[in-house]
Amino acid sequence: MAGAVSPSRRACIVGVGETRYARWGGIDDASEYSLAIEAILAALSDAGIDVSAVDGLCSFAGDRNESTFVAADLGIDELRYTTMSWLPGGGGASAAVTDAAMAVEAGQADVVVVYRSLCQGQFRRFGRGPGNERRARPTRLPGVRRSKGLIDTHLAFTLPFGVFGPPIAYAMVMQRHMHRYGTTAEHMGHVAVTTRAHAARNPRAVMGSRPMTMDDYLASRMVAEPFRLFDCCLENDGACAVVVTSEEQAADLRQRAVAVLAGAQGTVRGYGHGQFCNVNMDDDDYTSAGARTVAARLWGRAGIGPHDVDVAQVYDHFTGLVLLSLEDFGFCGRGEGGPFAASGALAWPDGSVPTNTHGGSLSEAYIHGLNHVVEGVRQLRGQSTCQVEGAETCLVTSAAGVPTSALVLGRA
Amino acid sequence: MTARWFPDEMPMPAASAETAGWWQAAADHRLVVQRCLACGATRHPPGPVCPRCRSADAELAVLPGTGTVYTFTVVHQAFIPSLGDRVPYVVAAVDLDGAGGARLVTNLVDVAPEEVRIGMPVTVAWEDMGPELALPRFRPVQEPR
């Protein structure tokens, strides 16, 4: 990544792996934790690296599968570097890869695995767990209870009003975006339909055998206006991992190495946890992915711009937020994400920037966007099921609407 | 509002040292915003220091309780089973009058969901949840004819 690093220490991705992906509750014969282990081993096998060579493990906020236990259960000789990015939920996948790359380039570790396992059938997800079904009797309400932490304190201003997590919070963002810029349901529908078409070619995709037309999209039930069911990503079970090492060590491995050309992470001023629970920010930021400054730093470090990348994997927890990310990363102007998507720009193979060529979180699997990194690597190896011919650079973005991160990957 | 607007199973708020005063004011049906005593900037939710000047001196300024709808959503899915009879309901972010740009997430009551618009003027409608807890919901202001 960094110019001052000697070429032999430059970080690259040399292995990717995943478990089977299944719909919510579809994996009941393996624990979420065991899937994390399986994905890590699959990525190492893909790279042709023995597990004994691993000395670093990185993940991102909220990971239940702590790296210290992973290291012990994998029999890693010596764990030398481990981090978990604070960036919440899906915001941190690219940051975790950047952390791994920095560790390699700084000499803190030689082989770092980034992993994510998510079995929503085993753990449920925020806002839907049994903990929210408190049987508080109105006559015995003790007043306001003591907060258990900062998130608890902030969610006190949203959860009691029925904001049960991301679909509702981000529906309000898109309502405002529609009001300001004239974005329409059909604009969001283009993201859903295009992504589903990509998934149809991907045997790993959970929704690969379920084609979708614009009429299907518009007929899907309303969740929180303007979001219909097909605006929302999957809830599912599965895990994936990527292996980061130096170019020097990559030379003798099984796969063509993919360079980590640039990584960036962070927030805009006053962003907090993002629009997930914060409505107190500038109107321009509220109606954005929150990635404006991350994008500027990313393109600056990469030395290329949005019109130079051959393919993009853009975090897609909700169709509308893909439009906002495309605006923040400069593929189109502010407010123009909808018409840009409707122009066919995102479609493989003929769009100007084929996007989410694996099917994304909407149609392949929701693994907090680490599977977007996996697909970026496959594109640059020439192994995608929607291969962009001659692809040399790929943008990968992590979650919009929360503190986030992004990568530019390239052929090593 | 005599009957409860949401089922009893809804999550209830939690307060920290920084936000307890806001919730105490709410229990007394006073809509407030934290205002820095050094530079006058407002912030919500309340925090330990002013993000503009870093002063820790702050007051809870009482607001008139009116505002306009900044954005909203009509929720159709019952995210907990007991909401099955309550959907659709309206969640809104309200630009609070006199609050220096501070916004509050709330519910809009006494209005058909399809009539809600961004920019609609609203006023606070307190719902007592118990002797020490009240939630600020909002209802449309009657437009003068």
How would you describe this structure to a colleague?
The complex is a heterodimer of chains A (412) and B (145). Chain A has a single domain, classed as Peroxisomal Thiolase, Chain A, domain 1 (3-Layer(aba) Sandwich), CATH 3.40.47. Helices cover 33% and strands 17% of the residues of chain A. Chain A is built from 15 helices and 13 strands. In chain A, strands 1, 2, 3, 4, 5, 9, 10, 11, 12 and 13 form a 10-stranded mixed sheet that branches. Chain A has a two-stranded antiparallel ribbon with strand order 7-8. In chain A, strand 12 and strand 13 form a beta hairpin. Chain A is globular, with a radius of gyration of 20 Å. The N and C termini of chain A lie close together (11 Å). Chain B is built from 1 helix and 9 strands, in the order βαββββββββ. Chain B is mainly β and 145 residues long. Chain B is globular, with a radius of gyration of 16 Å. Chain B has one domain (20-140): OB fold (Dihydrolipoamide Acetyltransferase, E2P). In chain B, strand 6 (89-96) and strand 7 (103-107) form a beta hairpin. Helix content of chain B is 6%, strand content 38%. The chains are: A alpha+beta (412), B mainly beta (145). At the A-B interface, strand 6, helix 5, helix 6 and strand 7 of A face strand 1, helix 1, strand 5, strand 6 and strand 7 of B. Strand 6 (145-146) of chain A pairs parallel with strand 1 of chain B.
